[in-house]
Amino acid sequence: MSRRKHAVVVGGSLAGLLSARVLLDHFEQVTLLERDGFPDEPVSRAGVPQGRHLHVLWEHGRGLLDGLLPGLEADLLAGGAPDLRLPADFLWLTSGGWRRRFETTRMLTFSRGLLDHAVRGRLFGDPRLAVRTGIEVTGLTGDESVTGVRYTERGDAGRAEERMAADLVVDATGRGSHAPEWLAELGRPLPRETKIDPLLGYASRYYAVPDGFDPGWKALYLQAGPPEAKRTGGLFPQEGGRWICSLSGAGGDYPPTDDEGYLEYARGLRDPVLYEAIREAEPLTPVVSFRRTAGHRRHYDRMRSWPAGFTAIGDSVCAFNPIYGQGITVAAISALELDRMLREGRSTRWFQKRAKRAGAGAWLISTGEDRRYAETQGPRVLPHTRLINAYVDLAVRAANTDPDSCADMLDVLGLAKPPTSLFRPASLARIVANRNRPVASAPLRPEPAAR
To answer: How many angstroms separate the CA atoms of 333 and 327, rounded?
Structure first.
């Protein structure tokens, strides 16, 4: 197939950056349009509203990213990103009790600023990629097919709207995407949308790790115990020899942002170990909050009329509660589906079905958990959802005591396997066999590798 001439990516999100990377394999020129700016240093930026909170990269996503941008993992490690054994390096209190510390997989943890800086460093040197910041895209051009975008330069209200032609436009503007309105201007009906809101909010801050602190673990993860216990706390190492502490609460039990209130909220977690770790630690930043965590799916895949020349990707299609750290992996999977669309000559409508599938596992996991809270807003909970959640409770309990069950569970959480894999005969047998094994009290010693 002959190379296409020009593609436009709207939005410098991670999904947008990875889309640009893929498009460079298929187009003579790619233009990335971003309304904000890109910092020169590995720091968070305004255009990533959740950028100052906890970020992790599961093993499956790690391989996908390094395949798209060879050398990226080495850049992250060189930048100081901790490489953690999971769950051996963790104290992990699940909804079903403490998890034993055998080793089944690995996880990278880092600031979002470090990740985005490393991705841009691998991407922005390509002379075929034009990056324009301070651009506000206001709509699409075309009719039956999208032929480009309309845009203005931010801060220049008197300047006339301009147009940019493209053979393909990719919307990667995230949760706040205006693609439904853009499509409506072209005569397409607004897509159906599903929203599931657990009324969950985050509050995060960085701490210096106290000198000589060595409790035998590298990370803490204290999960909520729904429906009554609504609070979750994570304390993870990051580059620069520091901790990031992220506290969250569902059902409107939002963590405060003042110093005293933040510590008091941490003391209200299901175990005091996180509070005891940070109460004497030196805060390095103010507490920052984030509450746009509702699951939000736009059903572009169900639209009967979808224009050629246009796709939506990442959070523009399916945004979900970020507590499980799956968004980076979903962005990589979606970018690979975009590559497949172009390699195989598939339609943009085909891609929207694949984009839904890319986020389906993360959507099922996050919304299934979100629906455990009585305060959650959204469609009513069906009986089969309650049955699935009851089975997941058994799976979590088995994963706490059995290395193979833990490996199965972490493969699902990391999106290496679909949630349905937990229902396969081998997994089912392990879950049933281990469902009543006693759960340990707070374990402090890691165990040998499971596989």
So the answer is: 10
Contact criterion met (CB below 8 Å) for 105 and 59: yes
**Which DSSP symbol is given to 438?**
P
pLDDT at 450 over 60: no
pTM as predicted: 0.94
The kind and range of the H/E element at 246 are strand 242-249
Using only C-alpha atoms, the chain has a radius of gyration, in whole angstroms, of: 22
- How far apart CA 318 and CA 294 sit, in angstroms, is 11
Cα separation, 244 vs 208, whole angstroms: 9
| SS3 per residue for 183-244 | HHHCCCCCCCEEEEECCCEEEEEEEECCCCCCCCCCEEEECCECCCECEEEEEEEECCCEEE
> What are 245-277's pLDDT values in tens digits?
999 999 999 999 999 999 999 999 999 999 999
Q: In the predicted model, is pLDDT for residue 304 greater than 90?
A: no
* 383 C-beta neighbours (distance < 10 Å), count: 7
Give one DSSP letter per residue of 133-193, joined into a string: ESEEEEEEEESSBEEEEEEEETT-TTSPPEEEE-SEEEE--GGG--HHHHHHHTTPPPPPE
**Each residue of 332-352: pLDDT tens digit?**
999 999 999 999 999 999 999
Outline where 325-424 has alpha helix (H). Answer: 327-344, 348-358, 360-370, 383-401, 403-413
